[in-house]
Amino acid sequence: MPPYARHIMRPISELTTDAAQGLWGVFTDIDDTLTTEGKLTAEAYLALWRLEAAGVRVVPVTGRPAGWCDLIAREWPVDAVIGENGALLFYEHDRALRELIHPSVADPAVRARLDDVRRDVLTHIEGSRVAKDQPYRRFDLAIDFREEAPDLGLEAAERIRAIFAAHGAHAKVSSIHVNGWFGDYDKLAMAKIAARELWDIDLEHERERFLFCGDSPNDAPMFAFFPHSCGVANVRHMVAHMTHLPAYVTQASGGAGFAQMVEVLLARRESLGS
After folding, report:
1. What are phi and psi of 16, to 5 degrees?
2. Are residues 73 and 198 in the same domain?
């Protein structure tokens, strides 16, 4: 039995007051963590505003494209957003949008090899298609296996990931896409850069000050790194495809699960001042 299969995800209700007191910020996935059936729910968006009002720093960490991240950094109640699985960081400073690119992002000539990957995937995986948000991406290729019909399932997603790997690309499976790129980065690598750039914090030594919330295999490095990590309930469907699981799990799925996590976190923090 692999190690992750023996890992017990505790209910988020077991988050202690001491742990909540030490939490300064939240990193969170977006798709199927903040969203439910593809929509950002009112309760999840309100939960973001509640964190902002409580002084808790928030950074979404997503596989979504640069074009989406521009909007999120400008219009959501967040400090910054990490996009394309760690390729880039957008944040506002002095009323201007700033962009930081991971130093290992491949040059255009290397990225052109993703065209070969695309042809290989579309030829060999029946029903596969390039994600509709691809025109807004700068550094990776996203193959849709579940966002739109037909749902190809996780086994097909793993076959798509294997094709990326055969071409020498990094690839991660999310709840809806398989994202692949050339460059030595992931969500965690850029989260470390973000903490240093935004707050002069060394995550290697201060990881207990943050909680990460997610739901899928591409979140595994974050689950492994942060001692305070939480999966929304739908993470249970991904267990067989993940190398690391979160410390905690919510009862509810998607945006409702994120809102539940925020409710517990803020209730524990508020109890300290009562």
Report:
1. -80, 160
2. yes
Pick from 228, 185, 253, 272: nearest CA to 19 = 228
pLDDT bracket for residue 273 (50, 70, 90): low
For the chain, give the percent of residues with pLDDT over 90. Answer: 93
CATH number at residue 118: 3.90.1070.10
Q: Please check whether residue 59 lies inside any domain of the structure.
A: yes
Q: Residue written as tokens 């994120």? A: 258
Note whether 36 and 57 are within 8 A (CB). Answer: no
Question: 266 and 204 in one domain?
Answer: yes
What is residue 268's DSSP assignment? H
In 10 A of CB 270, how many CB atoms?
12
Range of the domain at 176: 108-181
Structurally, the chain folds into a number of domains equal to 2
**Is 90 within the bounds of a domain?**
yes
Model pTM score: 0.94
Token couple for 143: 């193959």
In three-state secondary structure terms, 127 is coil
Three-state SS for 219-256 is HHHHHHHCCCEEECHHHHHHHHHCCCCCCEECCCCHHH
Q: What is the pLDDT of residues 144-160, one digit of tens each?
A: 999 999 999 999 999 99
Average pLDDT, the chain: 95
Domain end call among 181, 216, 237: 181
